[in-house]
Specification:
It is a single chain. Helices cover about 45% and strands about 20% of the residues. The protein is α/β, with parallel strands linked by helices and about 300 residues long. It folds into two domains: about 150 residues, Periplasmic binding protein-like II (D-Maltodextrin-Binding Protein, domain 2); about 130 residues, 3-Layer(aba) Sandwich (D-Maltodextrin-Binding Protein, domain 2). Strands 6, 7, 8, 9, 10, 11, 12 and 14 form an eight-stranded mixed beta sheet that branches. A three-stranded parallel beta sheet has the order 2-1-3, with helices on both faces. Helix 3 packs across helix 9. The longest helix has 19 residues. The protein starts with a helix and ends with a helix.
Amino acid sequence: MHKVTLYLIFHLLLIFSTFASYAQEIVISGLPHEITNYKKWLGNKKCTDINSYQNDYATKASTQIMLICKALQLGGFNATLSFNSMPNYSRSLFEAYKGRIAIPGDSIWLSQISQKHFYTAPPIFAEGEFQKGFFALPDKRKEIEEHININKSKGITSLQTLRDYIVITSQNWIFDQAAIKNLELTHLYTTKTENMCNMIKYGRGDLYFGELIMIGNKKIVFNCNGLILEPIKGIKVAFTESRHFVVSKNIANSSKIYEALRKGLNILRASGEIEKAFYPHINNKNIIVNWLDLLSLSPEQKQKKNN
């Protein structure tokens, strides 16, 4: 074979090899402290080397980023993740809409996804899988649980008792807000989680509405800006709408990134990895599964069941 031909073949193979090994940078958004949690959890490892979600840095936000990373790799897309700090969920979605980030690190409620601007991955939280509880300071938690038990003997429900306390939430959390209103709970609004924690700390509110899933600690607790909050036992809210990871259509290779994410998430779901991420400590699932879903008792949900 001619030397020039051999030379060209060699360099074409070299180019293709280089291209195949090239990792595209994918920008993911997240709250600053949650990006830090993810990086500390990851350490010097690859995300595909992380086999346990039993970790103090494993929160809903950092766990979702970990699953995005794993899904992309399993889906065959060679990606390097970079991060863009965002103040909240809404801003992340807006920046993805503009194409300034590829994937919001937090999953998105199905009804808030524009199919024109985003590829929608299979649900990370199917209907009923995303669950929240009502968290309080330890002494307040004991007080509320005692109040609930006393009132039960009088024929007063847990939900009716809960209405005697103040839930702190954000006006930006539309689905939380809707659930709290459906339950007719007393509530106050503020903007940031830090402010919510301070309101609870100084007695301006009693309860934080927080996730019961993706908790890396053995105990079901929520670290609220340094305050350790515990859930009111026996009650929860299971949301009926699914949540999904999305890929902005306004970025390079968006369809390929989406296909890899979709494929990888299906692999993670089928292997039981997502279930393991939901409940790193299986005993927590066994506890929570039997708690009463207050939303199923709300007037709106009863009306849906009757229709």
